[in-house]
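quick q for whoever's on today - can somebody do inverse folding on this one?? i tried earlier but teh output was garbage lol. tokens:
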């Protein structure tokens, strides 16, 4: 007989870990006990050496689905009399960090119960257990128990209470546990707020499905918010939803019943299949199959569709009653936060939805659906929300010494990040802080997270841009509380976020960071966005960039892509006009107020120069007639340009359009006139747009990779980090990665945090942490 103490750290509380340990210990013939404490889960076991070895070896492999084991530490103890059996005992040892787990898709066992006639949870839309169901979306306070969630008002019936109390049951201490007798209820109502007759809970889903089949638009309250749903094959319904929601071009998210249904409309790779079936159940952006039979208005100008599978019993029941996919988009008008409350949805979605499928379990925390895309051999997070937040990222060696920090993120696609005890807790997607309602939700969520994680920051980190609302809020907060304020350059944060999530230690050597995005405030006060930098956690050196080009009209250049096209052509417009007088692009630009624009350029009026990769993609998209006059959402023109690429031509085009390296203000710059000259020749010669787009993508990838190779060699750098929203272009990312790997360089790309501005807060946090540690 031996006696051991085993410490398990990670996401191991509130996920059914102790019952799993109890079952495993009994299967191994061990005696002892298990409990939660401030450090995670602690186990004491008595048994033979072989039994204990087998038990300890299976703690990771047989962990519950929602658990994440960071470490298993073993310590031999002096022998003593063993207890009579193995038991779960009360928590002990000071304040228990129960943690907050991400919401999880319905598990197989619960789904079988929902679909089994005669089961007491047959067709019950709120069925869940320790392995699935709502978590962050319902929590108000810690410790994580029923009283601190929106399930507090639903007292468990004797049957549910018995499951909750039984360590052998998978619902042992499942806080949202419920059934039709004691739990939340569902109903269907019309636009006047009147419940439909004969549409009780048993029939509400079936009636909702029938309404969708007839072309109605439904507001459906889910787990993290209210969605708007309609038949994805009904052109009229999709068109009405676009007009009512005021979302004229941005792609709609879709839900399909199962993989077989999805396979009729998109190509699903093994990695995409794995993501779709994961507990996170994100929206997965996949290649569309031509002639798919769905509405052409789902994703105009794109060759991809974003699908998710049902992730609650309610969604499973709804999709079981339908023959095809549905649109399932956020319940809001464009640019507003998603609705979460019943009254709020009735008010804000009046005139948008025709019917409401609602329930009485309160959504405490708004959670947008997460979005992922397979790129460069990995599934990469594009938007972090339901299913991923607030799962912590374990930081690399060296960061555990940092004091508690809070990073407030960027202006667009905002997230914030708490850091403590060597972990980064990255929030769900907040949205664009310029929208007043989003900014209110941002502040509310900051307060909530600090309470949930018992977090009091010793310092704050913000973007260097003085006008970002998150920066202004951080300045006020730091001044009020007397906290240190770290101002972190935007692209430095992009690169360090990737370094941290990819496991580069605090003391690791510098990397070559390539940040391509729309814009970020530069260290020189200019607008950056196509940057090559020597980066470590403590600082950076700008080594090269894209050639800065004027943004004529300032922010108007973001919304009107043709302005970027003219800014690139303006220095030699006379030649362009003389050589291509009948070109459609030239005729279009001639009709613009060019004399006024030239005067603005000459005087530097509202025309800041930006080294922006995003604006270059907009300029070329507009030249090809894509969203030329205006865009209705961020990245629209660039997304359409990627979709236009003729894939065969891209495979053949290894060099593409060329670019030059010029020296400006002491920095090498990628300059694009040669590209424009070749592109205009192809346009004038009637070359297909798909081939031109392919040559452009190949040329940019080649230029970026060539510059990277030169800089890596000159500065002795072996690792290259790629980040920024422009690298969410799959063709660009994969070609650049391919070229750099062929050159023998190690390439790191964000995976668990977004490459776009949704990952900036993580980078801000690790830069501030490094500065605090080395201070």
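ok took a stab at it. sequence:
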């Amino acid at each position: 007989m031996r006696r051991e103490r085993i410490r398990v750290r990670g996401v191991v509380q509130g996920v059914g870990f102790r019952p799993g340990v109890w079952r495993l210990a009994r299967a191994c013939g061990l005696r002892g006990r298990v409990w939660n404490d401030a450090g995670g889960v602690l186990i004491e076991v008595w048994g033979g050496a072989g039994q204990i070895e087998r038990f300890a070896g299976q703690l990771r492999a047989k962990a519950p689905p929602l658990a994440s084991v960071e470490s298993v530490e073993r310590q031999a103890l002096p022998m003593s009399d063993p207890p009579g059996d193995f038991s779960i005992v009360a928590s002990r040892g000071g304040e228990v960090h129960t943690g907050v787990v991400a919401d999880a898709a319905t598990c197989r066992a619960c789904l079988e119960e929902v679909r089994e006639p005669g089961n007491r949870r047959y067709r019950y839309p709120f069925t869940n257990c320790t392995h699935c169901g709502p978590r962050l979306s319902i929590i108000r306070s810690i410790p994580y128990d029923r009283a601190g969630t929106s399930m507090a008002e639903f007292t468990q019936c004797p049957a549910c209470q018995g499951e909750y109390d039984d360590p052998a049951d998978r619902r042992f201490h499942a806080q949202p546990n419920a059934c039709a007798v004691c739990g939340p209820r569902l109903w269907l109502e019309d636009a006047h707020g009147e419940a439909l007759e004969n549409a009780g809970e048993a029939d509400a889903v079936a009636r909702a499905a029938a309404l969708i089949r007839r072309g109605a638009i439904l507001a459906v309250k889910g787990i993290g918010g209210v969605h708007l749903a309609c038949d994805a094959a009904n052109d009229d319904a999709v068109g009405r939803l676009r007009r009512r929601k005021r979302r004229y071009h941005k792609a709609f998210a879709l839900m399909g019943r199962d993989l077989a249904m999805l396979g009729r409309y998109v190509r699903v790779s093994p990695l995409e299949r794995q993501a779709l079936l994961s507990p996170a159940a994100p929206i997965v952006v996949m290649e569309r199959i031509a002639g798919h039979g769905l509405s052409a208005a789902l994703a105009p100008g794109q060759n991809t569709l974003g699908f998710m599978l049902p992730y609650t019993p309610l969604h499973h029941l709804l999709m079981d009653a339908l023959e095809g996919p549905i649109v399932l988009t956020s319940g809001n008008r464009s640019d507003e936060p998603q609705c979460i409350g019943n009254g709020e949805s009735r008010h804000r979605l009046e005139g948008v939805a025709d019917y409401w499928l609602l329930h009485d379990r309160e959504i405490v925390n708004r959670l947008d659906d997460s979005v992922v895309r397979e790129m460069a051999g990995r599934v990469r997070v594009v938007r972090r929300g339901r299913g991923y937040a607030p799962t912590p990222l374990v930081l690399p060696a060296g960061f555990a010494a940092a004091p508690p920090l809070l990073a407030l993120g960027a202006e667009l696609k905002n997230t914030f990040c708490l850091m403590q005890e060597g972990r980064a807790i990255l929030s769900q997607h907040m949205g664009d802080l310029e929208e007043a309602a989003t900014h209110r939700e941002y502040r509310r969520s900051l307060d909530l997270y600090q309470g949930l994680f018992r977090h009091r920051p010793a310092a704050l980190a913000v973007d260097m841009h003085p006008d970002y609302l998150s920066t202004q809020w951080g300045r006020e907060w730091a001044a009020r509380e007397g906290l240190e304020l770290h101002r972190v350059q935007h692209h430095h944060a992009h690169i360090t976020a990737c370094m941290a999530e990819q496991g580069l230690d605090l003391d690791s050597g510098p990397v070559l960071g390539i940040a391509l995005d729309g814009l970020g405030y530069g260290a020189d006060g200019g607008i950056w966005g196509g940057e090559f930098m020597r980066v470590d956690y403590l600082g950076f050196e700008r080594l090269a960039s894209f050639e800065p080009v004027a943004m004529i009209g300032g922010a108007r250049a973001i919304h009107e892509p043709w302005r970027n096209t003219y800014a690139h052509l303006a220095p030699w417009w006379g030649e362009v006009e003389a050589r291509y007088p009948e070109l459609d692009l030239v005729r279009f630009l001639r009709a613009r107020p060019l004399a006024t624009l030239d005067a603005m350029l000459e005087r530097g009026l509202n025309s800041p120069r930006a080294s922006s990769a995003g604006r270059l993609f907009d300029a070329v998209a507009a030249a090809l007639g894509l969203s030329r006059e205006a865009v209705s959402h961020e990245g629209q023109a660039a997304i359409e340009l990627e979709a236009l690429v003729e894939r065969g031509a891209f495979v053949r085009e290894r060099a593409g359009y060329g670019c030059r390296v010029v020296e400006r203000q002491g920095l090498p710059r990628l300059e694009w006139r040669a590209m424009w000259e070749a592109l205009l020749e192809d346009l004038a010669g009637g070359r297909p747009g798909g081939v031109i787009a392919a040559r452009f993508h190949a040329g940019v990838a080649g230029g970026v990779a060539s510059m990277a190779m030169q800089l890596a060699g000159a500065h002795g750098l072996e690792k290259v980090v790629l980040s920024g929203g422009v690298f969410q272009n799959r063709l660009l990312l994969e070609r650049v990665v391919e070229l750099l790997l062929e050159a023998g360089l190690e390439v790191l790309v964000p995976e668990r945090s977004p490459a776009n501005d949704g990952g900036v807060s993580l980078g801000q946090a690790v830069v501030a942490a490094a500065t605090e540690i080395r201070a």
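fwiw The chain has four domains: 2-88, 186-371, 381-520+532-544+755-773, 547-714. also Residues 125 and 313 are 5 Å apart (CA to CA). so keep that in mind when u check it
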